[in-house]
Amino acid sequence: MRALTGFLVRIYTTMFGALERLTNGWFLGLAARFVFASVLLMYFWNSGLTKLGNGFLGFLSPSAGAYAQILPQMMEQVSYDTSQIAFFPFGLIVLLGTWAEFILPLLIVVGLFTRAASLGMIVFIIVMSYVDVVGHGADPSTIGALFDGNPSSMIADQRLLWIFLLLVPLLKGPGWVSLDALFGASYRRRERYY
């Protein structure tokens, strides 16, 4: 029995050790970025589009809808008149929040400043969840609860999975198939010559 157990342990460690060596340094970061792109990129992109103002320079002037989504209680207080809201800090928060929905996901997908962009997205998701619960008054079924046996609640369950997905590139990096790796290799080559 001891020989059989030892044999099975060796097969197990050999097989999964080889798999780990084969995927080390490139697979997890690339896979996390691919899943993020296929599941969440267009979600955030479309959400950002709803926040743009009119015209070619709409990205410089968020819509009233952007203010209503990001600062719902404040918009109610001013009867949805954005001219009543000071640019600093509130208009700036709306502007930067709008830009973040475009810039951070794009940086993650192409693998540029990936760790910083992943951290930014995690913070963004936490703030977004807070605004949904406190500002928009999300109902308990939308909020959900951890360990409740219902994995479909929008905030507690789904957004926790989003954050976990972003922890992979934050902690492990984007992998070799990324602009970070390309620019990093180029930087290291230049540093050798100086």
From TrEMBL:
A cellular-component GO term for this protein: membrane
Superkingdom of the source species: Bacteria
Name of this chain's protein: Uncharacterized protein
Record carries keyword Transmembrane: yes
Pfam family, one: DoxX
Subcellular location: Membrane
Chain segments annotated as transmembrane: 25-45, 82-99, 106-131, 160-183
